[in-house]
Each structure stands twice: as C-alpha cells, then as structure tokens.
Specification:
The structure is a homodimer of 237-residue chains.
Chain A (H helix, E strand, L loop, with lengths): L3 H16 L2 H4 L9 H8 L3 H13 L3 E2 L7 E2 L1 H23 L8 H8 L5 H10 L25 E2 L8 E7 L4 H10 L6 E8 L4 E6 L2 E5 L1 H4 L2 E4 L12
Antiparallel strand pairs in A: 1-2, 3-8, 4-5, 4-8, 5-6, 6-7
Helix pairs in contact in A: 1-5, 3-4, 5-6
The structure holds a DNA duplex (30 and 30 nucleotides).
DNA sequence: TAATAAAGTTAGACTAATCTAACAATATTT
DNA sequence: AAATATTGTTAGATTAGTCTAACTTTATTA
C-alpha cells in the first residue's frame, strides 16, 4: 500500500510528465522530469526528491538513475492516474452534490483523494452518473486509469465569428476561478467570438446574451470545443 | 491541527470513557481510563500510550499525571466528539447514498473521519437531511460535539408480549452485523417479543411477519425503544 | 577547453509514532 | 506487612519524511 506522500509524488509526476504543457510535448514522448523541477512543484528540497526517487525506484514505480531524470513506469503511471481519478471524482461530488464553489473544492479533494477504496470510487462514480469531466473541465480517468483527452484548443485560437463551448480551464488558481465565476461563465456554456483585435490582443466574446471584452490572460486559459471538432483534430472553428 | 494519530487517541478516549458500558457508569462520573486499557483498545503497547498521554497533556487535551488515569478535558472531549460526528455522518452517507452494506461502512469511515473541514461536514449533514442516528443506530453528535443519548434498553429487557422498535446495535463486529442483515432486520423495524424462555434464555421474536428464536448473544446487543418511552425513562415495555 | 553555473547527491540531524527490554510504582493477596 | 502480581515508565532503537550544509556531477558559456 502506498503512503500519502508516495501518492503525492506519483500524482505530481503524472501532472508534470503527462498533463503540463501537453500540447507542446504532444507526440514527443518527453515524459520525464528533473529532480529540481519536481522538488519545486512539490515544495520540498531537491535532497528530499533524490531520496524519494530512489525509494520509488525500488518499488518499481519510477525509472531513475543517479544524476538522471525521473519518469513513471507503467505501474507508477497507473497509480498516479488513480489518485487523479479520485481527486476529480471527489471534486465533482463536492460541486454537484454539496454545492461547494468552484474555488473551494480543490483543497478538500487534496485530502479526500487519499482514501483508498476502489469500490468507494466506483460507487461514487455511479452516484454522480459517470461524469467525463470534473467541475474544472478536466477529464476524469476511468477505472483502469485510462484517460482520453479530447482534442482541446484555447479560446485564443478560435477564429472571429465562430462559436464554441467551454469545456475546461487551464489555470486553476483561485483568482482565475473567482473571475470566471464572477462573469457568470460555466462549463458547457456556448461562447461566440465576436471580434479579435490584433493590436492589443483583446477579444470580444458573447455568452448567455452578455458581451465582454477579455484579455489573453483569460482566453489562453479557457479550453473550448465546437460541435464539429468534438471528435476531429481538424476543424475550422 | 491534530494529527491522524492524536485524533484516534481522543476518539478512543471518548468511546472508553463516555460510551462504553455507559449504562453501568451512568451518573458515576468515572470518565477516566488506565494506560493498559487504552493501549489494548488501540492495539499499541502501554509504553506508547504513556508517551502520548504526556503529549496530549501538554496540548491540554487530557488530564493525566504520571502513574495516574487518563481523562479528557473539555477541549479533548469536544475534539473526540467531532471525530465521532464525522465518522457517523460518513457512515450514513455510504449507507444511504452509495448503497454500501452495513458491515462495510465502518472501515471506510475510519479513513474519512480524518478529513478536517467543518464546512464539509455541515454540508454533508444537510445533504443527508440532518440524521440523528447513523446506520448502526448510534447518535450523531451535533455541530458542537453535543450528543443527547436517548434512553435505550436492550431487547433482553423487553417484557413478553410487548412491542418495541430497534434503534441501534451494541456489537459492531462484522459477524454480528452480517447476522442481523441475514435475518433481514433493520433500524426502525418493529419487533414483538412473543415468548421468553427462562430456562435457556431464548427469546421468540416477530418482525415483518417473520418469527425467529434468538439467544442472549443477540438480544443483549440490540437496542430498542418503544413508542411510549421515546422520551420517558420509565416505561412498561 | 577551462571556468563557471546549474543540477543533483550524500551525510547527518530532526520529529512523530511506534517498538522492546529493563525498571519502578501501585495494588492485591496470602 | 511481606510477597507477588499488575500496572505504568523510561531509555534506546526504528522508520518515514523532511531539512541543512557540504560535496559531486553534468551542462553551459566565455
């Protein structure tokens, strides 16, 4: 059985090697990370990560050689994915059933994700009607730790005059989530890009009969999908 | 913030000093416990309890002097009660919402009870419609850690020919819970005592149109209440 | 390529929670 | 009351996860 701490290392490795900058890395297979980077991400000292990397290697959860990079083994990836599955299912529960705000659920899920029970998570999954995305729009890994990330683009990439729907946010900081809440935008909402101003990169969007001018700080962090590109990598939206 | 372990010590102390044998102790104020007893209950060595007792004393959670008994302070009692509140609310959730069996919920609640969030527990309480008892029929402490144990008697004490309803079980062992499940008896079910045989202490009961002969091992561990004694200490049932 | 910077490792220390083994205090029994 | 049994304490060790400080390896740059 994995400890609380070991699980957090595996989760962090999944985030850093599979999710972070996934568009840049796409297809490059650069799924490894340095000791310093992981240490910074987990807010511990590099020395601590060095130690832990050795321990995780013994348990065959990571591939790692002294002075080398760290990467997840198949087993390690699966375990990390399961932590993320639990995290995202709990977030969905807190948001949908207990009426928590978008910006409150992450912290609670950080604790709840460490409850180990496959049965519990499968029951919760069923209770929530098998959601595909959590309240931030991130995909929820299935029972086997598999995740099928649909092709996503940011709102910045959508052409003028096109419509799309918001499916996720890229920035999970409380400030960002509070802003999105404030303007009244929600997952699954339809957004129309009315005008894109090249000069200062401001975009005028419309959703729910409201018009709003937003900056790249916003558009870069909203993931969208349009009806036609749901399953297609090429799409003109 | 209390650690996982500290919380378990406080919970155990509440169980041993307030709940266990509460009928015997009633009114005697003997709410203290020895090092060996607590060690046996927690399945650790007495040496460990000695150490922890000193630490908990520093934190003003227990009263304790070297070679003396351990008892909870007001603060310690409240913290312990809150752990029990969380445990019982989670059990209720697992049983009512996720359709877990009676005998599966305890173990999961042992983990869930350590998630600290007052808001989470209050929301869950609301979601469950403010239950007074958990699935085992034990009272759930309120937001302030207060518990009002209603007057309970065991099925053994009910006179021949009287009816009562089951409100709790005294024995939470898996074997016992499985047996209760097997015979199809549930919290709130009405039970009629048809016959009591003094010779071998067997009792014939009826519930849901079924008749069954049970032993003291059973009747001693079923708590009941009758309509007339709900709020009265004296009752002829 | 040699010097410097960045990245990573090792040794030794700390804390919390546990153990064992030896010892001390208190309670019980003859 | 002395002997014995029960109960509780202390000292020293262990493990996981962390730290700091000193050191080593690898990468970058002048």
């Amino acid at each position: 059985m994995l400890s609380f701490t070991e699980e957090n290392y595996l989760k962090a490795l999944v985030q850093l090697t599979f999710f972070e900058n996934s568009r840049q890395h796409e297809g490059q297979g650069k799924s490894e990370v340095g000791v310093n980077r992981l240490a910074a991400y987990l807010d511990v000292k590099p020395a601590t990560v060095s130690d832990m990397a050795r321990k995780l290697k013994v348990k065959e959860l990571v591939d790692y050689e002294k002075y080398g990079k760290i990467s997840l083994t198949e087993l390690g990836k699966k375990e990390g994915m399961m932590v993320i599955r639990r995290h995202r299912l709990w977030e969905t529960f807190l948001y949908q059933k207990l009426d928590f705000n978008w910006d409150e659920i992450h912290e609670l899920a950080e604790e709840l994700e460490h409850i180990h029970s496959i049965k519990l998570m499968n029951r919760l999954d069923q209770f929530l009607d098998f959601p595909s995305f959590d309240p931030h729009g991130d995909a929820i890994p299935d029972e086997n730790g598999e995740i099928t990330i649909p092709f996503r683009r940011t709102l910045s990439e959508v052409k003028e005059g096109k419509k799309c729907k918001m499916i996720a946010v890229n920035d999970n900081s409380i400030e960002f989530l509070k802003y999105v809440d404030k303007i009244g935008l929600k997952i699954e909402d339809e957004i129309e890009v009315l005008k894109k101003e090249d000069f200062d990169a401001l975009t005028t969007i419309q959703f729910k009969q409201k018009q709003l001018v937003v900056s790249p700080k916003f558009t870069d962090n909203i993931f969208v999908l349009c009806a036609t590109c749901l399953n297609a990598k090429e799409c003109d939206c």
